Amino acid sequence: MIAAALLLAAPVALALELPDSAAATELHEVVVEAQLQRTSATVSTYIPTSRQKNSAQTGPELLGHMAIPQLGMVTGSTVTTASGQAVTLFIDSVPATEQDLSGMRMADVRKVEYYDFPSDPRFLGKDHVINFVMQRYEYGGYVKAYANEFFIANSGQLNLYAKYQRGRMTFDLAVGGYYSANDHLYSNTTETFRLPQADGGVKEFERVTTVDAATARVRHRNLWPTFKALYKTDKTTLSNTIGANFNYQPVHSSAGSVSYEPAYFPATDFSSAEDSRDRSVTYSGNWNFILPGNNTLNFNPYYSYIRTSRNSLYTEGAGEYQNGAEDRTHRATASLRFSHSFGRAGDVTVILNGYLNHSRTHYSGTALATDRLTTHRLGPGLLYSYHAGKFSGMLCGGFNYESVRYGSTSDHTGEPWADASLQYAFSDKSSISFDFHHSVWTPSSTYRSTAVIQSYPFFSYTGNPDLDAYRSYDFNTRYVWMPRNGLSFAIFGYGNFVTDRFAFDYEATSSGVLRTITQDAGGYSNWFYGANGTVHLMGRKLMINGQAGHRIVHHGAPYCWTRGALIWHLQAWYYTGPWNFGLQYQSPLMYDDGIMNGTRIRERCSYAAIAGWGNGTWSVQCRLTNPFSRSWRAATSRMHTEAYSVVRTSYNTGSHCFILLSATCTLGFGKKIQRGGEASQQQGTTSGILQ
Predict the structure, then answer these.
(1) Chain centroid to CA 573: how far?
(2) How far is CA 607 from CA 319, 451, 658, in A?
(3) What Å distances lie between residue 503 and 333, 460, 518, 555, 560, CA to CA?
(4) What confidence score (pLDDT) does residue 29 get?
(5) Burial, 662: exposed, middle or buried (Cβ in 10 Å; 0-12, 13-18, 19+)?
(6) By the 8 A CB rule, do 413 and 420 touch?
(7) How far apart are CA 207 and CA 192, in angstroms?
(8) Is the peptide bond before 558 cis (omega within 30 degrees of 0)?
(9) Could you point out which of 204, 378, 510, 590 has its C-alpha 20 to 30 Å from the C-alpha of 240?
């Protein structure tokens, strides 16, 4: 008691003995805030906050809350750079798929890394990479359930994940299912035919197809199981995944009317019905070894088998056009990378890529034919990277030696590819980068078929077995400035142009139009530049992010058009306790339908309000999209050539008001599990059916 009294009295006595000035001194609170974002010549690193992790249900959603300046606005599972290039996602340096990212445990994300043209062989030579670095544990696991339902849009999914680790082994088991019952997926078209006549004139008329909205029906079912086994030590990573995918679309039908202007032909009714089934099995591996003598070895084997069936029946008046296709495709790839570090002199990586694809396709209906295509490709390459303080550079190049056998004909080619990247960090708050990529693209087997398939009156299509590869050149530059945790800014520019382009062309006769594929098409280019920025206010409770850019697209012959458009988006997130609230707006989009088809597409704007609640175990989210829209019209597209033109108005559920309700529940057990990529839905290779 006496000792306690003396301790309590000591501060008072000490204060009485201090001078007046010292006694009156006020000690201010000192707050130290961790650095949540930093950049360097090789990587930009971002630390997600607990608010952001509790608000996200999947990996891409977490990126959307973090608003990383190198990325565009993340919606759904799509992640791109600010200028629109694809970003490859990894979990602990192991490739991740959409379902991997859905099965992540958000609380275990320690940091997020962004790379441009990384030299690390574990990233498989990908141009732009996001790597989620996860918390490590000793043993145990977790189970996670993810479910969502699109009300009004009538679709939903349920995915279940389980992970268990014991020692150096980790096992993942996952299964998922998806359904869609869409009654609003269709399009109305106005086609213009210009058919040469025997007298030297041209018969020009419009064919107007109008769908009765009440008849549009699409039904879709999907089921996928996957198993993954991962062995990991400090120097070895062995990841092996096997999965299956069953995709069934039993109904895709519509009906309506067809009219002509001028009325060269009588108006009539039409009906269209399609069904399809895809069944595939897939194996993928990711093997990494750190070897003595500053060496590393990376090997990635892959195999898939897919069996595809397509059937369609189009009826117009007394005419009936029935088509069917059965395809079996085997695909195997392998990538081998051996790296050696010379210390200050840089790193060298020897690359060897292999590819084998064999497909057999049988057509029935308006075309009776069997296509057989076998493609072999061998791609050696060499990569050199150099890092010195604030500077990083990379040069990479190689050849793709390819052998293609189509039916009884064979073709052999050798085409180069090259990458270059320069990055400089002024400090850990700002950096600048320049990238260049050149590649040669081999035509898909889809485009080599000689079968002539008639879809409906006046329109047929075929492929071209004589197609050669085309060449593309990409340029990309970016400046990133992050002066403090609550502020980031980036400006960017991207350019792409193509030579030796092959494109759809249209040949007209007096009886109709045949869509072919020609390789003497005019040039193609796509340019996009702009800026984005993010600011955090109110103690990081409020985040505002936006981007504005200008896109210019040029299509040479046979389309001959150049167009520009201003594209922008804006989003805001507010966090309070376990709750989060968001607003998002995307301006109307204008873009083209790839290099082969000179179609100009304009999509309507979209906007959404989001409310969510999460505590690390449970996460519930409600998204109200396009609340003031009652129209199913989503986009308008236009294509024009000398012989044939088409204007198409597309309808779907994405432009109408709909509600998305989603929830996750994650339960962990054991003591500190090792976090890696989750088991995921495995996709088979595409089929060889002519589209």
Answers:
(1) 24
(2) 44, 44, 11
(3) 27, 16, 6, 10, 12
(4) 46
(5) buried
(6) no
(7) 6
(8) yes
(9) 378
Q: Which tokens belong to 89?
A: 């996602």
User: Could you tell me the two tokens for 83?
Assistant: 């200028």
CA 336/CA 128 separation, integer angstroms: 20
Instruction: Quote the pTM value.
Output: 0.86
Task: Please name the helix (run of DSSP H) or strand (run of DSSP E) that holds residue 54, with its range, or none.
Answer: helix 50-55
For 341, the token pair is: 């570090």
Record the tokens describing residue 562, joined without a space: 């150049």
pLDDT (average), residues 602-624: 95
User: What are the structure tokens assigned to 249, written together?
Assistant: 């679309």
Distance CA 580, CA 55 (A): 6
Closest CA to 378 of 406, 398, 358: 398
- Let me know: does 494 contact 72? Beta carbons within 8 Å: no
CA distance 149 to 621: 11
CA dihedral 426, 431, 432, 437 (to 10 degrees): 130
Cα-based distances in Å from 314 to 269, 326, 646: 11, 18, 19
Tell me the pLDDT tens digit for each residue of 416-463.
899 999 999 999 999 999 999 998 887 877 788 888 999 999 999 999
681 CB neighbour count, 10 Å cutoff: 23
CB 130 within 8 A of CB 87: yes
Buried residues in 320-337 as b, exposed as e (16+ CB within 10 A): ebebbbbbebbbbbebbb
Closest by CA to 192, choosing from 210, 206, 180, is: 206
| 187 to 213, 248, 530, 633, 634: CA distances (angstroms) | 9, 22, 33, 9, 10
CB atoms within 10 A of CB 370: 12
- What DSSP element (H or E) covers 338? strand 319-341
26 Cβ neighbours under 8 A, 6+ residues apart: none
Q: Which amino acid is present at 81?
A: T
| 264 Cβ contact list (under 8 Å, min separation 6) | 203, 205
8 Å CB contact between 652 and 629: no
Q: Convert the pLDDT of each residue in 507-542 to its tens digit.
A: 999 999 999 999 988 899 999 999 999 999 999 999
What's the length of the chain? Answer: 691
Give per-residue pLDDT as tens, 49-59.
999 999 999 99
According to DSSP, the residues that pair with 196 across neighbouring strands are 202
Task: Please state, in angstroms and rounded to a whole number, the distance separating the CA atoms of residues 448 and 410.
Answer: 12
Cβ neighbours of 188 (radius 10 Å) = 16
Distance (Å, whole) CA 167 – CA 177: 31
Q: In this predicted model, what pLDDT tens digit does every residue of 229-240 receive, in sequence order?
A: 999 888 999 999
**What percent helix, strand, coil does the chain show, rounded to 5?**
10, 65, 25
459's CB contacts (< 8 A; 6+ apart) are 191, 512, 513, 515
Residue written as tokens 């895709």?
A: 252
CA nearest to 253, candidates 209, 312, 208: 312
Rounded distance between C-alpha atoms, residue 134 and residue 672, angstroms: 11
